[in-house]
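Hi everyone, sorry if this is the wrong subforum. Our group has a chain we'd like a structural model of before ordering constructs, and none of us has done structure prediction before. Sequence below.
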Amino acid sequence: MKKIRYAVIGAGALGRHHARIAAGLDGVELVAVAEPNAVQGQTVARDNGSRWVADYREVLDSVDAASIVVPTSLHRRIAEECIAHGVACLVEKPLAGNIEDGREIVKAAEEQGITLQVGHIERFNPAFEELATRVHDPKYLRVERFSPYAFRSMDISVIHDLMIHDLDLVLTLTASPITHVDAFGVCLLGGYADAVQARLKFANGCVADLSANRVNPEFRRWMQAWSASGCVTADLHNRKVTHHQPTDKLLNGPTPHALAQLPGADIPQLKEAVFGEYIETDEPQIGECDQLTAEIGHFVDCLRNGSQPLVDGRAGLAALEVADQVHACVDAHQWNGNAAGSIGSHVNAVHATRRAA
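Answer:
Right subforum, don't worry. Here is the predicted structure as tokens:
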């Protein structure tokens, strides 16, 4: 089997993991780590038995595929250059910083017949995979993604930084066009919106509420889906899934509500029977999986087999388009007289938050 010659472009907090994983995959040769920061790039390359180059363009003619793990503003330029040299691309999310750039990346890949995958890593989260098998035609979705401020991805808002993960997941579960978007956000630490709340309405009747906050004391990544099969909750951070669903007794017999209206109804007994006799709870065992390894491994398998990535350019673009609608709503709302997505002074936002509390 011919080895896939691989490059990692960008050796920052995430890029170094791309390099580590690519170097360890069977049938993959990590040819180079491209990073303008010499100390950082040399360290990552040395640790993974590869060579360092300051300029990624030096290796485009000697690799088959590349992970593009650089600031979002650079995605289009680097992806287009890779594609022009016939290099398959795994572009970290978001696909691009704006819709125009995203469309041009997808267009270039499709015209050249080059494999393009977008790094929506939560698609490979085993907790989400389990939830997706249990939810069909959801009617309501609620998603929360909170994290401490990481002092990276500061060139984009929390919508492109965190929420875009969940926009992709929600689009995957609903498989229906969006008919309406409402959103509100606030900048907390300066720069771009750090906390955003969005509500999406879909043509099939589903409603999705999404919350993203990157100035939170602790991590929280959580999804809940309501459908005819019951309520499924997934803790995406700790990888736990809980499925509450109606029993045959609830579906086919008199309901607890009806029984409670009867003379002499035993209310304490009915309370005890709600979970067990009427609603059953399933907590499936979730397998161990390193999501990034699964994601990069999937990308490599697609190159070998000529198959379409699970999260291809079109999927990445769809999430980006919804993110743009959320941004437009956030900017339309006013917070102390300023657009929420581009507040002139973060101090005003902090003071307003304190008054609201």
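For your construct planning: Confidence is low (pLDDT under 50) at residues 339-357. The chain is about 40% helix and 25% strand.
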